[in-house]
């Protein structure tokens, strides 16, 4: 997350069962500015929930759609990192009720697919991530603007005053939770923190390297600290981020521009043979391989957290894995 927005407009419960007209930031095509439009938001269907969005963050994944790095259909309402209040529910909804504070989930939990039933993962088969359909589970959309259907983003679409999500993609939270802060749990914080604790399973006394110090990268730093890592090396080409990284738990900060050798060599020398865990939280092919290469050759674990650009392929020396390193991916904190 790089920014947050909130609204203090009260929730109107008398709109249940009716089409709501509200403001939304619509992206009509890639590489163009958002357009603030009046959109129509249909009532929730069976097992769906309509939410008044009270606060939303802007995540790098949203920017990937804007630039075309992440392919989605247009026009679309982006946003997937939010908190709000339930305005109304469709037939059969039992987990939440109007008035509840909630967080939309871009990775739903249907509770029935293989991923949901396996404790090793969290990527529900019902997620739109990787499918890019931009539709609700029934294959339709709840948004219209100027007579045109508007696509959903990751089943959440939070750059709007009201949104509709499936019941499996919403989590009830404490009624006292400050929505302008907990909205970051909807992606940024959970994605980074969970990558350290759930995916990598960082151990006490270990050494870690975190490539990229945006909101997600800093959350990885916090996760490594909570896990008990003895050394956390923060890596970024923007040294202005180092003070915050150290405040949150980084023990060392390294700017690759300060060296005339590859960053993985720098880290190998700093740690006497490589880190136990590394995290790539940028989404670049070159830093993904650098993060892998800086790991201890026999048992190091590298986790890809940054969203890779669409249609790009990675090339690397397979000997990096042959010796024993592990390469993993993590979505929404595993």
Automatic annotation (TrEMBL):
Keyword Acetylation: yes or no?
A: yes
* Keywords recorded for this protein, A-Z: Acetylation, Cytoplasm, Metal-binding, NAD, Oxidoreductase, Zinc
Q: Which named protein is this?
A: alcohol dehydrogenase
Which reaction(s) does its UniProt entry say it catalyses? a primary alcohol + NAD(+) = an aldehyde + NADH + H(+)
Q: Which gene encodes it?
A: Adh1_1
Q: Name one Pfam family in it.
A: ADH_zinc_N
Tell me which domain of life the UniProt entry assigns to the organism this sequence originates from. Eukaryota
Q: GO:BP terms for this protein? A: retinoic acid metabolic process; retinol metabolic process
- Record Gene3D superfamilies: Medium-chain alcohol dehydrogenases, catalytic domain (3.90.180.10), NAD(P)-binding Rossmann-like Domain (3.40.50.720)
One GO MF term attached to the UniProt entry: zinc ion binding
Quaternary context:
Homodimer.
Which cofactors, if any, are listed as required?
Answer: Zn(2+)
Query: One cellular component GO annotation, for this chain's record?
Result: cytosol
Q: Which residue numbers delimit the Alcohol dehydrogenase-like C-terminal domain?
A: 215-334
Read off the InterPro entries from this record.
ADH-like_C, ADH-like_N, ADH_Zn_CS, GroES-like_sf, NAD(P)-bd_dom_sf
Q: What is its main location?
A: cytoplasm
The family classification in the record reads:
Belongs to the zinc-containing alcohol dehydrogenase family.
Entry EC no(s)? 1.1.1.1
Give the location in the cell. Cytoplasm
* Every Alcohol dehydrogenase-like N-terminal domain range: 46-174
